[in-house]
Design a protein that fits this description.
Layout lengths: L1 H50 L16 E7 L9 E4 L2 E4 L9 E8 L5 E7 L6 H10 L4 E8 L8 H8 L14 E7 L8 E5 L16 E7 L4
Antiparallel strand pairs: 1-2, 1-9, 2-3, 4-5, 4-6, 6-7, 7-8
Helix pairs in contact: 2-3
Keywords: Disulfide bond, Lectin, Membrane, Secreted, Signal, Transmembrane, Transmembrane helix
GO molecular function, one term: carbohydrate binding
Subcellular location: Secreted
Length: about 230
C-alpha cells in the first residue's frame, strides 16, 4: 500500500536525520572540548613563560648595564672539583673543559671587546713560581685578569708574585695562605683596588671539607675599557 510505503519512508528519513543530528552534536562537543583543551594549554604555556625567570649571561642574578661584561666564577672545591670562570656567557675555564689545574688558574680577557685572550694555570704547590711571574709581567695594559685557586694556590708564591697580583687590583693576595680559597677579577693598568675579590682562609675549625674551606663564588659586571 502506498500509505504504508510513505510511512516507512518518513520513518527512515526521520531516523537518518536524528542519527545525523546526534552525530553532529557529538562531533561538535568533542571538537569544542579539543579546542578548549588547546586554548587552555596555550594559556598555561603562556603563563609559564611569563613567570619563568629570565636567564642572564653566565647565569648571574641580574643583567649587566651597557658597556659592561658579565662574569661569574668559583674557586675549586678541595682537590676534587676544579674552578670555573665564565665571561659573557663563555665558559673560559672549568673541569669539564679540562683546562684547570692545581694552584692559581688565570683567564685573560680583552678589556675593550670582552674576547678571551688566554687561559693558564700555575702549580703553586709543587711547581715553580718563575713562569707565573713572567706570565704576570707579560700581561698587556687594558687586559681583564680573572684568577681562582684550586687545592693550594699559595705555597710557592713569593713577594714578587704577590706584588704583581696586587698591582692588578688585589687586596687579599698579601694574606693568601696554604689551601685558602680565593677568586679575583682585576685588570692590568687598574688605578684603584678591585671590588671583585673573595677570600676564605683555611681553618680546621671552620673548613667545610677536610683540610679545605668551602668554595667561594663571585659574580658581577666588569666595566668595558674606554679609550
Amino acid at each position: 500500500c502506498f500509505c504504508i510505503g510513505a510511512a516507512k519512508l518518513v520513518v527512515v528519513v526521520a531516523i537518518f536525520l536524528l542519527t545525523f543530528y546526534v552525530i553532529s552534536q557529538v562531533f561538535e562537543i568533542k571538537m569544542d572540548a579539543n579546542l578548549g583543551h588547546i586554548f587552555a594549554r596555550s594559556a598555561l604555556d603562556a603563563a609559564a613563560r611569563s613567570t619563568k625567570p629570565p636567564r642572564y649571561k653566565c647565569g648571574i642574578s641580574k643583567a649587566c648595564p651597557e658597556k659592561h661584561f658579565a662574569f661569574k666564577m668559583a674557586s675549586g672545591a678541595a682537590n676534587v672539583v676544579g674552578p670555573k670562570i665564565c665571561v659573557e656567557d663563555n665558559v673560559l675555564m672549568s673541569g669539564v673543559k679540562n683546562n684547570v689545574g692545581r694552584g692559581i688558574n688565570v683567564a685573560l680577557v680583552n678589556g675593550k671587546t670582552g674576547e678571551p685572550l688566554d687561559t693558564k694555570f700555575f702549580d703553586m704547590w709543587g711547581g715553580d713560581v718563575a713562569p707565573f711571574i713572567e706570565f704576570l709581567k707579560s700581561i698587556q695594559d687594558g687586559t681583564i685578569v680573572l684568577m681562582g685557586t684550586y687545592d693550594d694556590g699559595a705555597t710557592k708564591l713569593n713577594e714578587e708574585a704577590r706584588k704583581l697580583i696586587a698591582e692588578l687590583g688585589s687586596t687579599s693576595i698579601t694574606n693568601l695562605g696554604f689551601r685558602d680559597n680565593w677568586v679575583f677579577c682585576g685588570g692590568k693598568g687598574i688605578k684603584t683596588k678591585s671590588p671583585f675579590e673573595q677570600h676564605i682562609k683555611n681553618n680546621k675549625d671552620t673548613n667545610k671539607y677536610e683540610g679545605w674551606p668551602e668554595v667561594v663564588e663571585m659574580e658581577g659586571c666588569i666595566p668595558q675599557k674606554q679609550d
